[in-house]
Amino acid sequence: MALQTSFTKLMSVRHPIASAPMGGEAGGALAAAVSDGGGLGLIGAGRGDREWLTREVGIARRATTEPWGIGFLVWAIDTDAVALALEFEPAAIMLSFGDPTPFAQRVRDSGVKLILQVTDLDEARRALDVGADIIVAQGGDAGGHCGENGIGTLSFVPAVVDLVGPTPVLAAGGIADGRGLAAALTLGAAGALIGTRFQATPEALVSPEIVKALLDADGQDTERNHTLDIARGAPWPHRYPARTLRNAVLDRWRGRDDELRSDTTALQEYREAAARGDLNVLPVWAGQAVGLVDSIESARDIVTTVTTEAEQALTRVAPR
Ligand SMILES: Cc1cc2nc3c(=O)[nH]c(=O)nc-3n(C[C@H](O)[C@H](O)[C@H](O)COP(=O)(O)O)c2cc1C
Description:
By secondary structure, this protein is α/β, with parallel strands linked by helices. The protein is built from 15 helices and 11 strands.
Protein backbone atom coordinates (compact mmCIF):
# COMPACT_ATOMS: atom_id res chain seq x y z
CA MET A 1 0.00 0.00 0.00
CA ALA A 2 1.62 3.26 -1.07
CA LEU A 3 0.63 6.22 1.07
CA GLN A 4 -0.27 8.75 -1.61
CA THR A 5 -1.78 11.97 -0.32
CA SER A 6 -2.44 15.52 -1.46
CA PHE A 7 0.96 16.40 0.06
CA THR A 8 2.92 13.73 -1.84
CA LYS A 9 1.20 14.77 -5.08
CA LEU A 10 1.75 18.49 -4.56
CA MET A 11 5.42 18.12 -3.66
CA SER A 12 6.15 15.19 -6.01
CA VAL A 13 7.56 13.05 -3.19
CA ARG A 14 7.05 9.34 -2.54
CA HIS A 15 6.20 9.42 1.16
CA PRO A 16 3.98 11.70 3.31
CA ILE A 17 6.83 12.78 5.58
CA ALA A 18 8.69 16.08 5.92
CA SER A 19 11.63 16.68 8.22
CA ALA A 20 11.35 19.77 10.40
CA PRO A 21 13.55 22.76 9.49
CA MET A 22 15.29 22.63 12.87
CA GLY A 23 17.31 25.84 13.02
CA GLY A 24 21.03 25.14 12.72
CA GLU A 25 20.50 21.39 13.23
CA ALA A 26 18.76 20.44 10.00
CA GLY A 27 21.49 21.19 7.50
CA GLY A 28 21.87 20.16 3.89
CA ALA A 29 22.95 16.60 4.69
CA LEU A 30 19.81 15.87 6.74
CA ALA A 31 17.47 17.51 4.25
CA ALA A 32 19.06 15.64 1.35
CA ALA A 33 18.93 12.28 3.14
CA VAL A 34 15.23 12.73 3.93
CA SER A 35 14.47 13.79 0.36
CA ASP A 36 16.51 10.95 -1.09
CA GLY A 37 14.55 8.58 1.13
CA GLY A 38 11.33 9.81 -0.45
CA GLY A 39 10.24 12.50 2.02
CA LEU A 40 10.60 16.27 1.85
CA GLY A 41 13.77 17.42 3.60
CA LEU A 42 13.77 20.97 4.94
CA ILE A 43 16.92 22.91 5.76
CA GLY A 44 16.56 24.82 9.05
CA ALA A 45 17.79 28.31 8.21
CA GLY A 46 16.38 29.72 11.47
CA ARG A 47 17.16 33.44 11.59
CA GLY A 48 18.54 33.47 8.05
CA ASP A 49 22.33 33.40 8.39
CA ARG A 50 23.49 33.82 4.75
CA GLU A 51 26.80 32.03 5.03
CA TRP A 52 25.33 29.04 6.83
CA LEU A 53 22.42 28.75 4.42
CA THR A 54 24.63 29.06 1.32
CA ARG A 55 26.91 26.29 2.58
CA GLU A 56 24.07 23.95 3.58
CA VAL A 57 22.17 24.45 0.32
CA GLY A 58 25.36 23.52 -1.53
CA ILE A 59 25.57 20.31 0.50
CA ALA A 60 21.93 19.45 -0.23
CA ARG A 61 22.27 20.16 -3.94
CA ARG A 62 25.33 17.96 -4.29
CA ALA A 63 23.68 15.12 -2.37
CA THR A 64 20.26 14.86 -4.01
CA THR A 65 18.24 15.67 -7.08
CA GLU A 66 14.97 15.18 -5.19
CA PRO A 67 12.87 18.16 -3.98
CA TRP A 68 13.98 19.86 -0.74
CA GLY A 69 13.08 23.10 0.99
CA ILE A 70 14.20 25.80 3.40
CA GLY A 71 12.55 26.91 6.66
CA PHE A 72 12.80 30.22 8.52
CA LEU A 73 11.67 31.74 11.81
CA VAL A 74 9.35 34.52 10.66
CA TRP A 75 9.92 36.80 13.66
CA ALA A 76 13.67 36.83 13.03
CA ILE A 77 14.01 37.43 9.28
CA ASP A 78 13.62 40.17 6.70
CA THR A 79 12.70 40.01 3.03
CA ASP A 80 16.38 39.66 2.03
CA ALA A 81 16.52 36.24 3.69
CA VAL A 82 13.58 35.01 1.67
CA ALA A 83 14.99 36.57 -1.52
CA LEU A 84 18.27 34.70 -0.97
CA ALA A 85 16.44 31.44 -0.33
CA LEU A 86 14.43 31.84 -3.53
CA GLU A 87 17.66 32.25 -5.52
CA PHE A 88 18.55 28.70 -4.47
CA GLU A 89 15.39 27.42 -6.19
CA PRO A 90 14.07 25.21 -3.38
CA ALA A 91 10.89 23.23 -3.93
CA ALA A 92 9.33 24.85 -0.85
CA ILE A 93 9.82 27.56 1.73
CA MET A 94 8.43 27.00 5.20
CA LEU A 95 7.71 29.90 7.55
CA SER A 96 6.98 29.48 11.24
CA PHE A 97 6.37 31.47 14.41
CA GLY A 98 5.08 34.88 13.44
CA ASP A 99 3.14 36.75 10.79
CA PRO A 100 4.13 35.45 7.32
CA THR A 101 2.18 38.16 5.48
CA PRO A 102 5.21 40.28 4.46
CA PHE A 103 6.84 37.27 2.76
CA ALA A 104 3.98 35.13 1.47
CA GLN A 105 3.26 36.89 -1.82
CA ARG A 106 6.91 36.89 -2.84
CA VAL A 107 7.18 33.13 -2.32
CA ARG A 108 3.94 32.48 -4.15
CA ASP A 109 4.90 34.72 -7.09
CA SER A 110 8.10 32.71 -7.51
CA GLY A 111 6.16 29.46 -7.92
CA VAL A 112 7.91 27.92 -4.90
CA LYS A 113 5.46 26.12 -2.61
CA LEU A 114 4.62 28.01 0.58
CA ILE A 115 4.43 25.93 3.76
CA LEU A 116 3.20 27.71 6.90
CA GLN A 117 3.43 26.22 10.38
CA VAL A 118 0.58 27.21 12.72
CA THR A 119 0.05 26.76 16.45
CA ASP A 120 -3.55 27.92 16.85
CA LEU A 121 -6.68 28.42 14.79
CA ASP A 122 -6.12 32.16 14.29
CA GLU A 123 -2.76 31.40 12.74
CA ALA A 124 -4.41 28.71 10.60
CA ARG A 125 -6.98 31.23 9.30
CA ARG A 126 -4.22 33.70 8.52
CA ALA A 127 -2.22 30.99 6.72
CA LEU A 128 -5.23 30.38 4.49
CA ASP A 129 -5.69 34.11 3.88
CA VAL A 130 -2.10 34.59 2.70
CA GLY A 131 -2.35 31.59 0.38
CA ALA A 132 -0.44 28.73 2.02
CA ASP A 133 0.00 25.69 -0.22
CA ILE A 134 0.52 23.44 2.81
CA ILE A 135 -0.26 24.09 6.47
CA VAL A 136 1.67 22.41 9.28
CA ALA A 137 -0.55 22.03 12.35
CA GLN A 138 1.84 21.91 15.27
CA GLY A 139 0.47 20.57 18.54
CA GLY A 140 1.95 21.27 21.97
CA ASP A 141 3.55 17.80 22.05
CA ALA A 142 6.20 19.17 19.72
CA GLY A 143 9.87 19.61 20.47
CA GLY A 144 11.36 23.07 20.23
CA HIS A 145 9.23 26.19 20.16
CA CYS A 146 5.48 25.86 20.03
CA GLY A 147 2.24 27.72 20.73
CA GLU A 148 1.49 29.00 24.21
CA ASN A 149 -1.95 27.35 24.38
CA GLY A 150 -0.39 23.87 24.56
CA ILE A 151 -3.21 22.14 22.67
CA GLY A 152 -2.16 18.59 21.86
CA THR A 153 -1.59 17.29 18.33
CA LEU A 154 -4.46 14.79 18.56
CA SER A 155 -6.95 17.59 19.20
CA PHE A 156 -5.41 20.31 17.08
CA VAL A 157 -4.84 18.51 13.77
CA PRO A 158 -8.48 17.60 13.01
CA ALA A 159 -9.59 21.12 13.98
CA VAL A 160 -7.13 22.57 11.46
CA VAL A 161 -8.11 20.02 8.82
CA ASP A 162 -11.77 21.02 9.24
CA LEU A 163 -10.88 24.70 9.01
CA VAL A 164 -8.49 24.75 6.05
CA GLY A 165 -9.54 21.78 3.91
CA PRO A 166 -8.83 21.04 1.07
CA THR A 167 -5.42 22.68 1.72
CA PRO A 168 -3.08 19.82 2.68
CA VAL A 169 -2.22 19.69 6.37
CA LEU A 170 0.87 18.11 7.89
CA ALA A 171 0.61 17.05 11.53
CA ALA A 172 3.55 18.00 13.73
CA GLY A 173 4.32 17.25 17.35
CA GLY A 174 4.88 13.89 19.01
CA ILE A 175 5.23 11.84 15.83
CA ALA A 176 8.31 9.63 15.86
CA ASP A 177 7.27 6.34 14.30
CA GLY A 178 4.84 4.76 11.87
CA ARG A 179 2.03 4.57 14.40
CA GLY A 180 2.20 8.34 14.73
CA LEU A 181 2.15 8.82 10.96
CA ALA A 182 -0.84 6.45 10.66
CA ALA A 183 -2.63 8.42 13.38
CA ALA A 184 -1.91 11.69 11.58
CA LEU A 185 -3.36 10.34 8.34
CA THR A 186 -6.38 9.05 10.20
CA LEU A 187 -6.95 12.51 11.67
CA GLY A 188 -7.22 13.82 8.12
CA ALA A 189 -3.67 15.11 7.73
CA ALA A 190 -1.86 14.56 4.44
CA GLY A 191 1.33 13.60 6.23
CA ALA A 192 3.61 14.30 9.17
CA LEU A 193 6.36 16.80 9.82
CA ILE A 194 8.86 15.23 12.19
CA GLY A 195 11.59 16.96 14.18
CA THR A 196 12.83 15.28 17.34
CA ARG A 197 13.24 11.83 15.71
CA PHE A 198 15.52 13.23 13.03
CA GLN A 199 17.92 14.69 15.60
CA ALA A 200 19.20 11.17 16.35
CA THR A 201 20.69 10.68 12.90
CA PRO A 202 24.26 10.87 11.66
CA GLU A 203 23.16 13.57 9.20
CA ALA A 204 21.77 16.04 11.76
CA LEU A 205 24.09 18.76 13.06
CA VAL A 206 23.59 17.64 16.65
CA SER A 207 26.41 16.85 19.08
CA PRO A 208 26.86 13.26 20.33
CA GLU A 209 26.18 14.48 23.90
CA ILE A 210 22.79 15.87 22.92
CA VAL A 211 21.94 12.74 20.95
CA LYS A 212 22.78 10.65 24.04
CA ALA A 213 20.54 12.87 26.19
CA LEU A 214 17.70 12.32 23.71
CA LEU A 215 18.22 8.55 23.62
CA ASP A 216 18.15 8.42 27.42
CA ALA A 217 15.03 10.61 27.82
CA ASP A 218 11.31 9.90 28.03
CA GLY A 219 8.44 12.22 27.16
CA GLN A 220 7.86 12.96 30.83
CA ASP A 221 11.37 14.41 31.00
CA THR A 222 10.30 17.30 28.74
CA GLU A 223 8.82 20.60 29.82
CA ARG A 224 7.47 23.69 28.04
CA ASN A 225 9.19 26.82 29.28
CA HIS A 226 10.35 30.37 28.61
CA THR A 227 13.07 30.02 31.20
CA LEU A 228 15.90 28.82 28.95
CA ASP A 229 15.21 31.53 26.36
CA ILE A 230 15.33 34.13 29.15
CA ALA A 231 18.57 32.65 30.48
CA ARG A 232 20.29 32.64 27.10
CA GLY A 233 18.90 36.03 26.13
CA ALA A 234 17.10 34.69 23.05
CA PRO A 235 14.57 37.30 21.86
CA TRP A 236 11.73 34.84 21.12
CA PRO A 237 8.21 36.34 21.18
CA HIS A 238 6.55 35.44 24.49
CA ARG A 239 3.72 33.59 22.74
CA TYR A 240 6.14 30.80 21.75
CA PRO A 241 7.55 28.83 24.69
CA ALA A 242 9.83 25.89 23.94
CA ARG A 243 9.66 22.22 24.88
CA THR A 244 13.04 21.06 26.16
CA LEU A 245 14.40 18.35 28.40
CA ARG A 246 14.27 19.26 32.10
CA ASN A 247 17.58 20.46 33.47
CA ALA A 248 19.17 22.14 36.48
CA VAL A 249 18.24 25.67 35.33
CA LEU A 250 14.56 24.75 35.02
CA ASP A 251 14.62 23.05 38.41
CA ARG A 252 16.11 26.16 39.99
CA TRP A 253 14.00 28.83 38.27
CA ARG A 254 10.66 27.13 37.55
CA GLY A 255 7.87 29.68 38.15
CA ARG A 256 10.38 32.49 38.73
CA ASP A 257 11.01 33.77 35.19
CA ASP A 258 10.68 37.43 36.17
CA GLU A 259 13.22 37.01 38.95
CA LEU A 260 15.65 35.33 36.56
CA ARG A 261 15.25 38.13 34.02
CA SER A 262 16.55 40.68 36.50
CA ASP A 263 19.21 38.55 38.25
CA THR A 264 22.35 39.66 36.45
CA THR A 265 24.60 37.34 38.49
CA ALA A 266 22.52 34.30 37.60
CA LEU A 267 22.42 35.33 33.94
CA GLN A 268 26.20 35.74 33.90
CA GLU A 269 26.64 32.31 35.54
CA TYR A 270 24.34 30.86 32.90
CA ARG A 271 26.33 32.39 30.05
CA GLU A 272 29.57 30.98 31.44
CA ALA A 273 28.14 27.49 31.86
CA ALA A 274 26.57 27.64 28.39
CA ALA A 275 29.89 28.73 26.87
CA ARG A 276 31.46 25.60 28.42
CA GLY A 277 28.78 23.53 26.66
CA ASP A 278 27.36 22.37 29.99
CA LEU A 279 24.37 20.15 29.16
CA ASN A 280 22.95 20.74 32.64
CA VAL A 281 22.06 24.24 31.51
CA LEU A 282 21.82 24.25 27.70
CA PRO A 283 18.43 23.68 26.08
CA VAL A 284 18.00 20.21 24.60
CA TRP A 285 14.89 20.64 22.46
CA ALA A 286 12.76 17.51 22.48
CA GLY A 287 9.12 16.60 21.89
CA GLN A 288 6.95 14.31 23.96
CA ALA A 289 7.68 11.38 21.64
CA VAL A 290 11.37 11.48 22.60
CA GLY A 291 10.81 8.24 24.53
CA LEU A 292 10.32 6.51 21.17
CA VAL A 293 13.76 7.65 20.05
CA ASP A 294 16.09 4.88 21.21
CA SER A 295 18.57 4.43 18.38
CA ILE A 296 20.63 6.43 15.93
CA GLU A 297 19.44 5.63 12.41
CA SER A 298 20.14 7.19 9.05
CA ALA A 299 17.49 9.73 8.09
CA ARG A 300 16.82 7.80 4.93
CA ASP A 301 16.11 4.62 6.94
CA ILE A 302 13.82 6.54 9.28
CA VAL A 303 11.70 7.69 6.33
CA THR A 304 11.45 4.12 5.04
CA THR A 305 10.73 2.58 8.44
CA VAL A 306 8.14 5.16 9.47
CA THR A 307 6.32 4.73 6.15
CA THR A 308 6.39 0.93 6.27
CA GLU A 309 5.22 0.88 9.89
CA ALA A 310 2.41 3.30 9.07
CA GLU A 311 1.25 1.09 6.22
CA GLN A 312 1.30 -1.91 8.57
CA ALA A 313 -0.55 -0.01 11.30
CA LEU A 314 -3.27 1.08 8.90
CA THR A 315 -3.63 -2.46 7.51
CA ARG A 316 -3.82 -3.84 11.06
CA VAL A 317 -6.77 -1.66 11.98
CA ALA A 318 -8.51 -1.96 8.61
CA PRO A 319 -7.43 -5.23 6.95
CA ARG A 320 -8.08 -5.29 3.23
C1 LIG B 1 15.68 20.83 17.81
C2 LIG B 1 14.49 21.48 17.19
C3 LIG B 1 14.64 22.68 16.53
C4 LIG B 1 13.54 23.26 15.90
N1 LIG B 1 13.73 24.41 15.19
C5 LIG B 1 12.72 24.88 14.42
C6 LIG B 1 12.95 25.97 13.54
O1 LIG B 1 14.03 26.55 13.49
N2 LIG B 1 11.92 26.36 12.74
C7 LIG B 1 10.71 25.73 12.77
O2 LIG B 1 9.84 26.06 11.98
N3 LIG B 1 10.46 24.73 13.63
C8 LIG B 1 11.44 24.27 14.45
N4 LIG B 1 11.20 23.23 15.29
C9 LIG B 1 9.82 22.71 15.43
C10 LIG B 1 9.50 21.76 14.30
O3 LIG B 1 9.20 22.50 13.13
C11 LIG B 1 8.31 20.83 14.57
O4 LIG B 1 7.15 21.56 14.81
C12 LIG B 1 8.54 19.86 15.72
O5 LIG B 1 9.83 19.32 15.69
C13 LIG B 1 7.53 18.72 15.64
O6 LIG B 1 7.50 18.00 16.82
P1 LIG B 1 8.44 16.74 17.15
O7 LIG B 1 9.76 17.35 17.53
O8 LIG B 1 7.76 16.07 18.27
O9 LIG B 1 8.56 15.90 15.91
C14 LIG B 1 12.27 22.65 15.95
C15 LIG B 1 12.13 21.45 16.65
C16 LIG B 1 13.21 20.84 17.26
C17 LIG B 1 13.03 19.54 17.97
